[in-house]
Amino acid sequence: MISEEAFAATVDLINEAALNPPAWKAVLLRLATLTNCVAGGLTVENSATRKGRPLTYFGFDDDHVAKTFDYYLPMNPLFSIADKMAPGFIVANGDVIAPDRFRRTEFYNGWARPQKIGSPLTIVLHRSEDSYCPLTLVRPDGAGEATAEDRALLRRLAPQLIRALGVSLRLESLALRNAAIEAALARISIAVFVVDDEARIAYANPAAEALLKRSASLQSKDGALQCGDAAASRKLQTAIARACRRDQPAEFGEAFIPSEGEEAMEIAVAPATSQSPFAPLLSAAPCCVVFANDRSQRRWDGLRRFARHYRLTPSEARLLAAIVGGGGLAQAAEATNVKPSTAHTHLKRVFAKTDTNRQGELINLALTAFLPLQEERSEDT
User: What CATH number should be reported for the domain holding residue 349?
Assistant: First the structure.
């Protein structure tokens, strides 16, 4: 019988695995030691397809697993009781197939015997429709079936094991969602900052990082977001404070700050405060999102994409950029250092390629045709 001290240590290890998935291998090792097993694995399996994959394991031959797992898994006798594989269900091999019959199966002779392993003891930790996640402990070949004490231990640990895997899955789901959000934010050309109530930056997407490097209008000082202009900085701080309020409804705020270009940079501050009672326990918790729209930079990124899409020549693309930048065809010709007649020819070709007829129509199409995505740039661009 396991001592209370050993049981508590095992529960601690299971709790660690809930928050740190690689620790599940240590859980397998611990449970195997307590049940006199020599191998163990955590797998995901599908009863409809009889396919699956190992999540983590020990004691199995890595080369054998890599080469034969997919072939032998469908032969596992436990698939015959797949409908019973609900969380907390405990089963030994002998419950499903007589030991002498099992030793005559291809599964035993091709999978188990070459690895010198025998009868498994399994507890199901999770199920979703046809897919389930069994934790399996395997005795040495010839050591017989799991004992009543082994089953009792797993039964006693079942609530902790099931809960821990549930936490692991929840954290993995949140990690995948965050990765998807970050991937999306990495592609947009609008700068996005996540900040706390003191404007300390917790996250900045690539567009935001690039903006801080090239612009004096928006800066990071000691890790906090601020404007280069003192008056604009005060407006930004006020908007952040209002977006982060907890004692009364948070507010969405907007501001325009001076920029090096012709247009002021657009700033929007959106509340992202948590209603969780545990939020006060988090130091410097992110609580609002700051969007900075450097319209001049977005314009040129969009024009490059527009020029590629419509297959404009470099000369045509330069003329289009000059027209979008302001002024008429004459000024664009001067800005691009071409004759007015040449500029007129370039413009006619752009009209034909873009199926437009007027400069206003062309400008509107060029500025609205594409989503505000970041341009792909090479290292030497």
Answer: 1.10.10.10
Q: Over the stretch 63-88, which tens digit does the pLDDT of each residue have?
A: 999 999 999 999 999 999 999 999 99
Query: CA 194 to CA 149: how far, in whole Å?
Result: 53
Contacts of 197 (CB under 8 A, 6+ apart): 240, 241, 244, 287, 288
CA–CA separation, 319 and 346 (whole Å): 7
Which residues does 23 contact at the CB level (< 8 Å), separation at least 6?
Answer: 13, 16, 17
SS3 45: strand
226 assigned to some structural domain: yes
Among 260, 293, 326, give the residue marking a domain's end: 293
Instruction: Single out the residue of 355, 351, 283 nearest to residue 323, CA to CA.
Output: 351
Residue with tokens 């470099």: 314
Question: Which pTM was predicted?
Answer: 0.74
Question: Please, what is the angle between helix 24-34 and helix 148-187, to 10°?
Answer: 180
pLDDT tens-digit readout, 232-285 = 888 899 999 888 877 677 778 877 776 655 556 788 999 886 666 666 666 666
Say if residue 160 is in the same domain as residue 206.
no
Angle at alpha carbon of residue 66, lines to 62 and 72, rounded to 5°: 110
Q: What does residue 304 show for φ and ψ, rounded to 5 degrees?
A: -60, -45
In a domain, 256, yes or no: yes
The domain spanning residue 243 has which CATH number?
Answer: 3.30.450.20
Q: Is the pLDDT of residue 381 over 50?
A: no
Looking at the structure, do residues 153 and 215 belong to the same domain, yes or no? Answer: no
Q: Are residues 213 and 196 located together in one domain of the fold?
A: yes
DSSP string, 171-213: HHHHHHHHHHHHHHHHHBSSEEEEE-TT-BEEEE-HHHHHHHH
